[in-house]
Design brief:
The complex is a heterotrimer of chains A (501), B (512) and C (107). By secondary structure, chain A is of the alpha+beta class. In chain A, the strands form 3 sheets. In chain A, strands 3-6-7-10-1-11-12-13-14 form a 9-stranded mixed β-sheet. Chain A has a 3-stranded antiparallel β-sheet with strand order 5-4-15, with no helix packed on it. In chain A, helix 1 (9-15) packs across helix 4 and helix 10 runs antiparallel to helix 11 (408-419). Chain A has 3 domains: 9-311, no CATH class; 321-432, no CATH class; 440-499, Arc Repressor Mutant, subunit A (Orthogonal Bundle), CATH 1.10.10. The mean pLDDT of chain A is 90. Chain A is built from 16 helices and 15 strands. Chain B is an alpha/beta fold and 512 residues long. Chain B has one domain (3-306, 388-508): Amidase signature (AS) enzymes (Alpha-Beta Complex), CATH 3.90.1300.10. Helices cover 40% and strands 12% of the residues of chain B. Chain B has 17 helices and 11 strands. Chain C has a domain at 9-50: Histone, subunit A (Orthogonal Bundle), CATH 1.10.20. Helix content of chain C is 31%, strand content 6%. The two termini of chain C are 32 Å apart. In chain C, helix 1 crosses helix 2. The longest helix of chain C has 18 residues, at 30-47. Classes of the chains: A alpha+beta (501), B alpha/beta (512), C mainly alpha (107). Chains in contact: A-B, A-C, B-C. At the B-C interface, helix 10, helix 11, helix 12, helix 13 and helix 15 of B face helix 1, helix 2 and strand 2 of C. Chain B: It catalyses: L-glutamyl-tRNA(Gln) + L-glutamine + ATP + H2O = L-glutaminyl-tRNA(Gln) + L-glutamate + ADP + phosphate + H(+). Chain B: It comes from Glaciihabitans tibetensis. Chain B: One of its GO terms (molecular function) is glutaminyl-tRNA synthase (glutamine-hydrolyzing) activity.
């Protein structure tokens, strides 16, 4: 793959206006698939979660999952969409080995939801309205594994293997209208938009929304319009963008790549491009020879979906609060400053902090860990912070610190263990023997009390006069009636003096 | 009288009384198949488990278990239906040897009712045809004249009952594939109301037109089979949730009562066409006169849009079929043909479909692909779907005036094998009488009304009723059947020439 | 369901048939293409008569018997075993279906 020439980002923005558009696919977390009663579960043993339909066997027929329809309507409402009075499925015909029937059941001219609006917030607090064209129901495809060749990629593979466990998993595809005026904020806006969609589906509880697992997938359309030309450029569609971080990077990359080509008088090919997380570039995807002609027609095996005003109202009333209202409420409940709250939003960690707080942690500790140490580790690994550790584990970690079982320093080591997949925090503590000795809790309480009673000693220790600690050690030994290990007490006094404020 | 000449209803009476065992009945039909199917070629596969299943039913009956009316009766199954343990090829090379891991709903209902599947019957490939000449496994021959077609696509099922190889069979009808074979073989067949019989496990040709139905020698037998296979199936979204009356009861009522008195019988002007064969017209008008004599009111009705039915049908069917048949791609099941020198998966798919599909299937897939293509959709598929609305309106207007509609089942009697094989358009016109019912989803029955004087071959009458009024078909059909047989003094099929054991059979006996 | 209206289908050429065969993944010999070109033209000429009556005021019918909101409860049912799933496969590796390379060498 030849390295593409890139133009400096600011220069690109001087010459061109970026025009964006997004297609976000949300995998619904129903119990069964969209049109078959196979469990909605994949990643296990290949080809074991399938019915005749998921294999496209002759004679098999689809039946719509009612829960998937309800979820789709709820999502449509949360996106501010109108819900279609009557909506129908259509067949999208194309041959590909991961598509068992060689057509995808989707929606074409009558989507379930249309004409919506999502407000997103940029780092500096500016608000941006993204107009939603439509949200429609469809089914996912199976999974191809390419064997042979050097890269494991489709190029150069000797053959491919197909697992249909994912075939038929319910999807909602959310399509935006063209987005103008994002300018230099285009990459950030892209990330903020996907993050907003993620917040919405998580608050609705309709998707696991893990980008790294493909529960939430973003196809980003980008074109550049030469300044003053009033003409739209040719767009590319970038796929395989599997993290919030990548959304931002991929948009920035495509702007720079397209600008370099256009500036040299070249033309942009309307094509699908694949984002490569590892190298940070996009490459031309397989040119789809049938892409111009999917031969859509109404799915004769399925009947129209006519939700009725009553169902729509019922689902509307059950909606969680709107994202903007939710953000306001959380900021207030957590008593965050503007800066603190923006920090959480910009990191795309609102859901994580919320869930960590829900699991019992204080808002400040949750924010501190997520936007601090966890974000730092994620940055090193080049992944989203949300993929490293679960809110439940972060909350457990914070509880261990607050109970005095862990110091911050030890907690960071425990976090490393959790990230490395060694288990929950208490399991890492046990396995690595990181816990402050069992009766340290009582010791620490006595030490903290003694330090508080002798602020002058505390000041001296902090100034580096370690011998001053003797006074505190004596007081603690006395309080513990001599049952404590003096050497351990000395260690702890120094540690607590460093952290106690 | 040999067991094979009994109707299913007669046979069940003997099975119920213990006079005959299911093993005996099944063996008699297997023997008949061995004797004549070398010539007729109604079957693609014989169920090796048939006698075992029959023995099991006999044992359960002997143990005092209460069994359903047709328990122990053998039945032939069109190869378009998925059957566990038996290949299901839809008459195509591309599915040669494919054994489904599941039963079609209608098949599981037959099994649950303890019928004995005899085997799978021949058909035009993927039900595309009116003669079974498009079967990848060779044509079926009409028992009335082995040189002639048995109709299609379900020529195998119709020939099987007409040749006494099975008392009853299952068929499927997309544009006449049950009713037209019934007409040319002198048998009975019913296309039920769309959605009244499950399509789950029926290998799809055109999803919005396909309907599974019964094939038999008597009206009552079709009704008995319909009662078993019909009713709601949650696996088929288009399946109706209606509760249905007993069709057997309707047939029995029709056979005894005067169902014709005061009945308004409509004759569709456009289907009483001058272009039809003389003997067909003759027998059709005789049957009208007979009905009128028995108290029916014959009313001419006009269905002006029927003129466009065949055109609409040959757009809708290929369009849906081009998509339904896309799954035959050599990846998960069926044939795989690797092109010379290898190639990409796309090349393998194309080579497989090029080698695995017959000419008619390719023709219709190409046509359907065109009809759905960007830019042509509105002109072809979209317009055809509008014609469908117009045909429904014609039926609505007609049924506002009459209780049932009648027409000849087919424009001609059985034509010669090979006669129309190279003229697709002429072949397509065979279905002019049967197609409107499929487009509108209404039920239709084909039953024999005599032999055409010029060729001595069977002529069929089609009865159509409003959607969901399938019981009218059975009631009127049974009355007509009784009146005709009283008039003739015998059944029509008793006049079919005797089929002699084939040379193949003789050879196997070492007699040559 | 398309929106564009290119030239009507008066000229079915061999290239059109070749394109359609490609779209529907059917390898055809030149003989077959030649024969189909003529047949397709004749059939289309015949079926185009639907346009005589399919006026804009007539709604399209997709389903012969109109129904709406046919759903299935979100409850898992029986699945195929791996053996059943692979039983009809032309080629597999014991758990997955095997197909030839998706891209050719030049891609």
């Amino acid at each position: 793959m030849a390295k593409a020439e890139l133009m400096d980002f600011d220069k690109a923005l001087e010459l061109f206006e970026p025009v964006l558009g997004f297609e976000v696919h949300v995998e619904l977390n129903t119990k069964t698939k969209m049109f078959s009663d196979a469990p909605n579960f994949f990643g296990g043993e290949p080809n074991t979660n399938i019915t005749p339909l998921d294999l496209g066997l002759p004679g098999s027929l689809p039946v719509v999952n009612e829960q998937a329809v309800r979820y789709s309507i709820s999502l449509g409402l949360a996106l501010g969409c109108s819900i279609a009075e009557s909506s129908r499925f259509a067949r999208k015909n194309y041959y590909y080995p991961d598509t068992p029937k060689n057509y995808q059941i989707s929606q074409f001219d009558e989507p379930i939801a249309y004409d919506g609006n999502v407000e997103v917030e940029l780092a500096d607090g500016r608000k941006f309205q993204i107009s939603i064209e439509r949200a429609h129901m469809e089914e996912d495809a199976g999974k191809l594994t390419h064997i042979g060749g050097s890269t494991g990629r489709i190029q150069g593979a000797d053959y491919s293997l197909v697992d249909y466990n994912r075939a038929g998993v319910p999807l909602v595809e959310i399509v935006t209208n063209m987005i103008f005026g994002a300018e230099k904020d285009a990459p950030e806006l892209a990330k903020a938009y996907v993050s907003a969609i993620r917040d919405i589906v998580v608050s609705l509880g309709i998707s696991d929304a893990k980008m790294e697992r493909g529960n939430l997938r973003c196809d980003a359309n980008i074109s550049l319009s030469p300044r003053g030309s009033g003409k739209l450029g040719t767009r590319t569609e970038t796929k395989n963008v599997n993290s919030l971080r990548s959304v931002e990077r991929a948009i920035r990359y495509e702007i720079q790549r397209q600008a370099a080509i256009l500036a040299k008088g070249g033309t942009i090919l309307q094509e699908t491009r694949h984002w490569h997380e590892d190298t940070g570039v996009t490459s031309a995807g397989r040119p789809k020879s049938d892409a111009d002609d999917y031969r859509y027609f109404p799915e004769p095996d399925l009947l129209p979906v006519v939700p009725g005003a009553e169902l729509i109202e019922q689902l509307r009333l059950a909606l969680p609060e709107a994202p903007a209202i939710r953000r306001r409420r959380l900021k207030e409940a957590w008593s965050f400053t503007d800066l603190e709250f923006q920090d959480v939003l910009n990191s795309g960690l609102l859901v994580e902090v919320e869930e960590t707080v829900a699991a019992g942690a204080s808002a400040q500790s949750a924010r501190k860990w997520w936007t601090g140490e966890i974000a730092r580790l994620a940055n090193i690994a080049g992944v989203d912070a949300s993929t490293l550790v679960s809110p439940l584990h972060v909350s457990e970690l914070i509880a261990l610190i607050e109970s005095g079982d862990l110091t911050d320093r030890l907690a960071r080591q425990v976090l490393e263990g959790v990230v490395a997949g060694e288990g929950a925090p208490h399991e890492v503590v046990d396995a690595r023997g990181l816990k402050v000795v069992s009766d340290d809790g009582a010791l620490i309480a006595a030490i903290d009390e003694a330090l508080a009673a002798q602020p002058d000693v505390l000041a001296k220790i902090r100034d580096g006069k370690v011998q001053a600690a003797g006074a505190v050690i004596g007081a603690v030994m006395k309080a513990m009636r001599g049952s404590a290990d003096a050497a351990r007490v000395r260690e702890l006094v120094l540690e607590r003096a460093a952290v106690t404020e | 009288m040999s067991l094979i000449y009994l109707s299913a209803a007669e046979l069940s009476a003997k099975l119920g009384s213990g006079e005959v065992s299911s093993v005996e009945a099944t063996q008699a039909h297997l023997d008949r198949i061995t004797a004549v199917d070398g010539d007729v070629h109604a079957f693609l596969h014989i169920n090796a488990e048939a006698l075992k299943t029959a023995a099991d039913v006999d044992a359960r009956r002997a143990a005092g278990e209460q069994l359903g009316e047709l328990a122990g009766v053998p039945i032939a199954i069109k190869d378009v239906l998925c059957t566990i343990g038996m290949p299901s090829t839809a008459g195509s090379r591309i599915l040669e040897g494919w054994i489904p891991p599941y039963d079609a709903t209608v098949v599981s209902r037959l099994r649950a009712a303890n019928l004995i599947p005899l085997g799978k019957t021949n058909m035009d490939e993927f039900a595309m045809g009116s003669s079974t000449e498009h079967s990848a496994y060779g044509p079926t021959h009409n028992p009335w004249d082995l040189e002639r077609i048995p109709g299609g696509s379900g020529g195998g099922s119709a020939a099987a009952v007409a040749a006494f190889e099975a008392p009853i069979a299952l068929g499927s009808d997309t544009g006449g594939s049950i009713r037209q074979p019934a007409a040319v073989t002198g048998s009975v067949g019913v296309k039920p109301t769309y959605g009244s019989v499950s399509r789950y496990g029926a290998i799809a040709l055109a999803s919005s037109l396909d309907q599974v139905g019964p094939v038999s020698r008597t009206v009552l037998d079709s009704a008995l089979v319909h009662d078993i296979i019909g009713g709601h199936d949650p696996r088929d979204s288009t399946s109706l949730k209606d509760t249905w009356p007993s069709f057997a009861a309707a047939a029995r009522a029709g056979a005894t009562a005067e169902s014709l008195k005061g009945l308004r019988v409509g004759v569709v002007k456009q289907l009483d066409a001058p272009g039809f064969q003389d003997g067909v017209k003759l027998r059709f008008h005789e049957s009208l006169a007979m009905m009128e004599e028995a108290g029916a009111e014959i009313v001419e009705v006009s269905a002006p849009n029927f003129e466009y039915a065949v055109a609409a049908y040959y757009l809708i069917l290929p369009a849906e079929a081009s998509s339904n048949l896309a799954r035959f791609d050599s990846v998960r099941f069926g044939l795989r043909v690797n092109p010379a020198g290898g190639g990409t998966v796309e090349d393998v798919m194309a080579a497989t479909r090029g080698a695995g599909f017959g000419a008619e299937v390719k023709r219709r897939i190409i046509l359907g692909t065109y009809a759905l293509s960007a830019g042509y959709y509105d002109e072809y598929y979209g317009s055809a779907q509008k014609v469908r609305t117009l045909i429904q309106r014609d039926f609505d207007a007609a049924f506002a005036q009459v209780d049932v509609l009648v027409s000849p089942s087919a424009p001609t009697t059985a034509f010669k094998l090979g006669e129309k094989i190279d003229d697709p358009l002429a072949m397509y016109l065979n279905d002019v009488t049967t197609i409107p019912a499929n487009l509108a989803g209404i039920p239709g029955m084909g039953l024999p009304i005599g032999l055409a004087p010029e060729d001595g071959l069977p002529v069929g009458l089609q009865i159509m009723a409003p959607a969901r009024a399938d019981d009218r078909l059975y009631k009127l059909g049974a009355t007509l059947e009784r009146m005709l047989e009283e008039k003739w003094g015998h059944t029509l099929l008793s006049q079919a020439p005797n089929l002699t054991p084939t040379e193949m059979f003789a050879a196997s006996e070492g007699a040559v | 369901m398309s929106e564009s209206h290119p030239e009507p289908a008066d000229g079915i050429t061999a290239d059109v048939v070749r394109h359609l065969a490609g779209l529907s993944r059917i390898a055809l010999s030149d003989d077959e293409i030649g024969k189909l070109t003529g047949e397709l033209g004749a059939i289309l000429e015949n079926v185009a008569k639907v346009n005589e009556v399919a006026t804009p005021d007539v709604p399209a019918t997709s389903h012969p018997i109109p129904l709406t909101n046919v759903y299935r409860p979100d409850v898992p049912g029986e699945t195929l075993t791996l053996e059943q799933a692979l039983a009809g496969a032309p080629e597999h590796d014991g758990s997955r279906f095997k197909v030839s390379a998706i891209l050719g060498e030049e891609q």
